[in-house]
Amino acid sequence: MNTITLTPGQLSLSQLYDVWRHPVQLRLDASAIDGINASVACVNDSDAEGRTAYGINTGFGLLAQTRIADEDLQNLQRSLVLSHAAGVGDPLDDAMVRLIMVLKINSLARGFSGIRLSVIEALIALVNADVYPLIPAKGSVGASGDLAPLAHLSLTMLGEGSAVCDTHLPRPP
């Protein structure tokens, strides 16, 4: 099995083709960790200073000006994922889901999102264990068009949704 060391911004088309063709093992290059941690520190500092940050400690859309109580923030983030997991249709094939996962890991590893290293490591562990969330082929929300698919990808880490964990067995309907 091919091992790919993810160095943010250095993923080649050849490596992506390998990811699409067959399962791979991922490793995160140590050079990514400082940027990830600095981004998390920025979010933590903002919170510690009591600043309002859209989507981190506020509602969304019309509720963007509504500050969410600290004790409700975990539920806010969980509810956001659950509410956007609104795709329909047949699930994407494992190769496509694996490719989506690797691209998302590579993007998050650039250190611009404020996401914790442990979340990136959890996604890497899923790829390395050949665990692929079921992502419906149709339906999305938002201008970027990836909110619903990424919400379905994230459900697995919340203990929700469905995933394929033995690619030799039939997929669930």
UniProtKB/TrEMBL annotation:
Gene3D superfamilies: Fumarase/aspartase (N-terminal domain)
EC top class named in words: lyase
Pfam families referenced in this protein's UniProt entry, alphabetically: Lyase_aromatic (PF00221)
EC number: 4.3.1.3
Keywords on record: Lyase
Protein origin, superkingdom: Bacteria
An MF annotation (GO) of this entry: histidine ammonia-lyase activity
InterPro entries registered for this protein in UniProt: Aromatic_Lyase (IPR001106), Fumarase/histidase_N (IPR024083), L-Aspartase-like (IPR008948), Phe/His_NH3-lyase_AS (IPR022313)
Keyword Signal recorded: no
Keyword Lyase: yes
PANTHER family given in the database record: HISTIDINE AMMONIA-LYASE (PTHR10362)
Name of the molecule in the record: Histidine ammonia-lyase
